[in-house]
Amino acid sequence: MNIAVLIKQVPVSNDVSVDPETHALVRASSEGMINPSDLNAIEAALVLKEQTGGKVVVFTMGPPDAEKSLRDAMALGCDESCLITDRVFGGADTIATAKVLAEGIKKYGTFDLIMGGALSADGATGQVGAMVAEYLDIPHVTEIQAVSYDESEPDKVTILKKFQGLDLTIKAALPALVSVNFGANEPRLATLRTKRAAKSKPLATYTNAEMGMDPEEIGLKGSPTIVTDSFEPESDRKAEFLTGTPKELAEKLKELIETEKGKE
C-alpha cells in the first residue's frame, strides 16, 4: 500500500509574528515542528506500511525551512517526502492550501490512502483534509481513531471513529483520505541512526514552475476567506492562589464568588 501523509509545520511556541498587511502568520519567524496530530497520522501510516509493504511519502506546503519537518518525518520511518514551496502559495486559506496539496499529490504519483492530522495546533479548522479529498474526488472520513486493512478486502480500509460517545466502524473504498485524531496512538521516536538515514532519503521540491497553477487561483489571491484584522485582546483578569484547610478554602471561594457577583 502506497500512502501519502500530509503534515504541517507549526510554530514551537506562541511567540510568532503576524504580517501587518495580510494578517497571516509569518512562519519563517519562529522555529517549527511537526503538527502534533500529524505525528499520529504518520504512526498509523507506518503501521499499515509494515503490514502491507509499499511506501509512505510525506507532503507539506510551506516555506523552505519546512524541509526540517519533512526530514523529521523521514527519521520516523517515512520513505520519501515532498516540499511544496513558492511565494505565490503564501497567505493561502484552507481552500487554496487544499487545492495546492491535491495538485502536488497528483503530480507526485498514485496513492492508495492519504492521511493527515485531524486538527492543526495553530489553526484547528480541521478543513484541509476533507477539502483535499474533494479536489481528488475520493471518499474521506475525518477525526478517526484507527484505520486497519484486511487482505481479504484489498479495495477497502476499515476505520474506527468515535462520535458522540459511540464507536463507529466505517468501511471506505480505496483510494480514500482519513484524518487522524491527536492521541489516537503512540507515535514512535526517531533514533540517531534513523535521523542520519533521513538526511539521504529522497526529498522532492515543487515550486509553481513545476506545478503550473494559475496564480490567481492559489495563495492569497485564490483565497475566498480573508482576515481583515488581528489583535491581542486586552484582559484585566488575574489569578489568585488560595491556601488553607478545605473549610477555609470553601469560605474564601464563597467570599470571592460573592464579591464578583457584586461587581455585575
TrEMBL record:
Transmembrane annotation, as ranges: none
Domain Electron transfer flavoprotein alpha/beta-subunit N-terminal intervals: 22-215
Pfam families named among the record's database cross-references: ETF
Signal peptide positions (record): none
A molecular-function term among this protein's GO annotations: electron transfer activity
Top-level taxon: Bacteria
Protein name, entry field: Electron transfer flavoprotein small subunit
Record organism: Mordavella massiliensis
Upper classification of the organism: Bacteria, Bacillati, Bacillota, Clostridia, Eubacteriales
